[in-house]
Amino acid sequence: MVRVAVAGGSGQVSQEIIDTLLASKKHHITILSRREAPTTAPVAPEIHWQIVDYDDKRCLVDALRGIHTLLSFVQILSDPDQKSQKNLIDAAVAAGVKRFAPSEYGSKGTVDMAWWHGKERIREYLEEVNAEENILEYTLFQPGLFLDYLAYPYKTAKHVDPLQSVFDFENRRAIVVDGYEDAIMTLTTVVDVAAIVARAVDYEGRWPTTGGIRGNRVTFSQILEIGRRVRGHSFAIEKVKVEDLEAGNLKTSWGLEAVHQAVSEDQASALLKAVSIGILLSSVKGAWDISDEWNQIFSDYKFTPIEDFLAKTWEGKP
Questions:
Q1: In this predicted model, what pLDDT tens digit does every residue of 4-17 receive, in sequence order?
Q2: How many of the other CB atoms lie within 10 Å of CB of 178?
Q3: 243 Cβ neighbours under 8 A, 6+ residues apart
Q4: Which of 98-113 are b and which e, b meaning 16 or more Cβ less than 10 Å from the residue's Cβ?
Q5: pTM
Q6: Beta-carbon neighbour count of residue 278 at 10 Å?
Q7: Nearest to 260 by CA among 5, 10, 11, 9
Q8: In whole angstroms, what is the distance from residue 41 CA to residue 304 CA?
Q9: Is the peptide bond before 318 cis (omega within 30 degrees of 0)?
Q10: Closest to 33 measured CA to CA, from 6, 15, 55, 12
Q11: In what order do the strands lie in the sheet with 167-168?
């Protein structure tokens, strides 16, 4: 039985993981939130809802006393200086929390993805905290891109909404960097990510600092070939050049339209273009070629194969 605190517990990814932890019936769960508990969807009785002020370290320390594992899902975009997570880390150390997982759940590198640069700040801060001795055990949960996004516009997870990517299975089209058709993408289902995180909470060994979760490691070409098989014919491929992307130009006939819930309307257009450019450029530089630390620890776990998932998702769809 582990006492677990979840910061940012009302987010979509965190709700997936909370549900999986609850299903195990092993843990006491505290959700840390700036807001009151929702009244529209009652909180499970096993959950303690704690209102906190992320600017008040004393408040955070009090909320974290007796907590063993702290999982953070604090929004990176809404806190450019990452003050909330830094305060959370300081409070975790002061309260004697044993393990911490920062708000990650994506690529291993953040190169060319400015919206995720806050992750680098927190990685550096955790290294500083542990510079002289291992004060706070932590892991960076990195599953690559959610495979569920390739099901857009269909929702395949309970909480995580579908988002578009450069692989548009609905319209059988894709954007690829010219000459880098063999760039690697790691794609992992939301269900598999939640299952591994729940297992990690149970795990009695030391957490690996880099926590790669490798559901499927595939090239752009392999994704497109799988797309051809599950969607019935080849995708229309638009090729872009590295130099255009580096200049901030996305020379394609289409782009992303569905925006994440955390993004405001006035940010949406520019961010969607930046996301397309960033994912394409970073893939060329290996940011999505995820390691497999958690796969090795939980070698008995069977991840959802990409083609099985997509064939089931797209069966009978127009």
A1: 999 999 899 999 99
A2: 12
A3: none
A4: ebbbbbbbbbbbbbbb
A5: 0.95
A6: 21
A7: 11
A8: 30
A9: no
A10: 6
A11: 167-168, 173-177, 236-240
